[in-house]
Write a structure and sequence with these properties.
The protein is mainly alpha-helical and about 700 residues long. Helix content is about 70%, strand content about 0%. It has a two-stranded antiparallel ribbon with strand order 1-2.
């Protein structure tokens, strides 16, 4: 299977090359959709072949040495284990959905061909990261993704916000990539190899000190940059200036997932380094809670989803810090499905309404006009909120369970090494539950602002735009048929029954308008083309079905493999560090984590429904109180980055510029001026008077003779 995995990234890479040739030549444009979709779809099929062909077996590698440096050797090859096989499937499925969706969504774009070429290259780079057995090859894919994100986020480069967002994404992530590269070099120097297996084996045998500890801590810089964790989280919300399908790809399966994947790939390296675990846990806990609050406060639909991605990625990082690698990967897979669904559904909504402002979207009667989008987006929001039986509930519950087991040192050990400190477990558990509460709240608020029923007059008013209350809306509402839609509909109906008409609140303060959406395209049907609705339905089905994996998480863990693998377990045994898994399965932690997850969900939904019940027809965001404004502005993270990094760098650049223009250039200019002055002085001596020349010569001879005479 590892030999087949070598060829999988080549399919999207060849697709990118062919599309680039078409873009440059301007010919064969009718073949662009096929060149964009079919190779990616074929790669996705092959990822399933690798997954089921590998099964639950031991890791396999196919590699060739491509450089001998006199130090660590460099290898080109693929490593296939459960982790790589599962994440590759996620990448293939989401990339195929995005390319298919883009066929009609981006058809009106002049640069559609180059756009699809970059998506294919982006996908190939992520597959290189997933399958690579050599960290330097992984770094190549890592950096190619950064370059692709720059071009894709800035696709609409005519818009200033798109240009600034692309530059910001590139620079902020590169700020983390510098220590990431140093971390790879430290690990390779300590292990004598850039390959994953020797590096991990060295960490297990030598422990978390020296080069291993330094490498693990330095790698965190790249993880925080790519996965948008504090203090490098600011680029991801601004990246919403790019096309919506790109947001789906970046947020669900590439770029941001790469940081989480690298920690999972090198997990024993971090597990033996307590300092690295504490850094990950603290940063992730802060990021999860603050990003969830920011998601609650946003008015733009895509920014809500962007901040939710930051928060959910933080939960994955927190799970890794707490020793729950299986839980983190489970949530990465789960999140990839429903987040791609939500972004693609948001694209349909924004194209239909011409705006992404949630204060305005409900006036378009989206429930009736976009029934498929309504149903699928409801499923996606239910999964994001952690509503059972969707996938998000089980994956979040598994994170809470892993944190609780670490905090109390109960349950079966999932590591061949050691468990993280109990303090990390308690920190992650608290952050997970609080984030779950906030996530349920902002998902309910988003659903309410988009899809609340308009057949009741007292629900037509909004707190943000009173003039819209007079708009005519249909009295007919299509009933929800999907499981998640029916559940949320019942909750809303129970909370809002028989409420009096509410008085509209004043209009919003200036400067809070939503980011402009794309220009609405001509409709080809009652809702959207099949190429757009098809991926929504498929992803909604995956989100629903994948949730039932949570009923038997041991089945998922068997596909993923244990936390360290058989080879690493042997290395740990040789080093005398092996911890045998507990024989008994403790039911109490599993039940308690489930109860806590449900309680957080219920409390989050209850807060929003109580706000709706108190003032129907208004935006529930008011329950944030004084936190509303700072949360909407990201708690001043951009300002902090400006003060800590941007301004000092600008001052340093100004200082270097001064030295260059005034000192270095001044020295050069001064040398020229001095030479010219000397020349002008000598020129004055050349008068053309022969007598003066003879006088000078005789005077010189006399002086020389006198000097020679005195010297004797």
């Amino acid at each position: 299977m590892s030999t087949l995995a070598l060829w999988i990234p080549l399919l999207p890479l060849l697709s990118a090359a062919a599309l680039a040739a078409v873009s440059l030549s301007g010919r064969a444009r009718k073949a662009v959709p096929a060149l964009a979709v079919l190779p990616i779809a074929a790669a996705a099929v092959l990822t399933f072949v690798v997954l089921f062909g590998h099964g639950t077996g031991a890791a396999t590698e196919s590699r060739i040495r491509y450089a001998a440096t006199g130090g660590p050797e460099l290898w080109l090859g693929a490593r296939v284990d459960g982790l790589a096989a599962l994440i590759a499937v996620l990448v293939g499925v989401v990339a195929t959905a995005v390319q298919l969706y883009s066929v009609t969504y981006m058809a009106h774009e002049e640069r559609y061909t180059s756009y699809t070429a970059l998506i294919s290259l982006f996908t190939a780079a992520m597959l290189v990261v997933v399958y690579s057995t050599d960290l330097l090859v992984l770094l190549v894919g890592w950096e190619v993704m950064g370059a692709c994100s720059y071009f894709l986020i800035g696709h609409h480069w005519e818009r200033p916000e798109a240009r600034s967002a692309s530059i910001k994404a590139f620079l902020v992530t590169k700020f983390g990539d510098v220590p990431f590269l140093l971390g790879i070099l430290f690990l390779a120097h300590g292990a004598g190899s850039f390959r994953v297996e020797p590096i991990v084996r060295h960490a297990i045998q030598q422990g978390g000190h020296g080069y291993t500890a330094a490498g693990a801590i330095l790698l965190i810089g790249g993880v925080m940059g790519k996965s948008a964790q504090i203090p490098l989280q600011t680029w991801l919300p601004d990246a919403m200036a790019g096309p919506t399908p790109i947001s789906a790809l970046i947020h669900a399966a590439t770029m941001v997932a790469a940081g989480v994947y690298v920690v999972a790939r090198l997990y024993p390296v971090f597990l033996v380094t307590p300092a690295a675990l504490w850094i990950l846990a603290i940063a992730a806990a802060l990021t999860a809670v603050t990003a969830a609050l920011s998601a609650f406060a946003q008015r733009d639909l895509k920014r809500i989803l962007a901040y939710s991605t930051v928060s959910q990625l933080a939960l994955m990082v927190a799970a890794l810090a707490a020793g729950g690698r299986d839980a983190a990967v489970f949530h990465l897979m789960s999140h990839g499905g429903f987040k791609a669904l939500l972004f693609l559904a948001a694209g349909v909504v924004i194209h239909h309404a011409g705006t992404g402002n949630v204060d305005e979207l409900n006036t378009h009667d989206l429930r009736r006009k976009l029934p498929v989008t309504f149903g699928t987006m409801t499923i996606g929001l239910a999964a994001l909120a952690g509503f059972p039986p969707f996938s998000g509930f089980w994956s979040k519950e598994s994170i809470a369970g892993a944190a609780y087991e670490t905090a109390t040192h109960t349950g079966s050990s999932k590591s061949v090494l050691t468990t993280p400190p109990s303090g990390i477990g308690w920190l992650v558990l608290a952050a997970t539950l609080l984030t779950g509460l906030l996530t349920a709240a902002y998902c309910m608020r988003t659903w309410w602002m988009l899809f609340r029923p308009l057949d009741r007059p007292w629900l037509r008013k909004t707190s943000e735009t009173p003039a819209e209350a007079a708009a005519e809306v249909s009295e007919t509402v299509v009933p929800a048929t999907e499981t998640g839609a029916a559940a949320l509909e019942a909750l809303v109906a129970a909370a809002t029954e028989a409420q009096p008409e509410a008085t509209p609140a004043p209009p919003p303060p200036p400067g809070t308008a939503s980011t402009p959406g794309p220009t609405p395209r001509p409709k080809r049907g009652p809702e959207a083309p099949r190429a757009e609705l098809g991926p929504l339905v498929v992803l909604a089905a995956i989100t629903t079905v994948f949730g039932f994996v949570g009923l038997n998480q041991g089945w998922f863990a068997s596909w993923l493999g244990d936390a360290d693998g058989a080879a690493y377990r042997t290395a740990a045994a040789d080093a005398g560090k092996l911890i045998q898994p507990a024989d008994a399965y403790h039911l109490a932690p599993a039940l308690l984590s489930t109860v806590l997850a449900i309680a957080a969900l219920a409390l989050g939904l209850g807060l929003v429904l109580a706000a709706v019940r108190a003032q129907p027809g208004t935006d529930p965001v008011r329950i944030l109180g004084p936190l509303r404004k700072p949360a909407r502005e990201g708690f001043g993270a951009d300002e902090a980055q400006d003060a800590i990094a941007v301004r000092p760098i600008q001052l340093a650049a100004d200082g270097v510029g001064f030295l260059d223009t005034e000192v270095v250039d001044g020295y050069v200019r001064g040398s020229g001026i001095a030479a010219r002055g000397l020349g002008e002085g000598l020129r004055r001596l050349q008068t053309g008077n022969v007598q003066l020349y003879l006088t000078g010569v005789l005077t010189g001879v006399v002086v020389i003779a006198a000097a020679l005479g005195f010297g004797r």
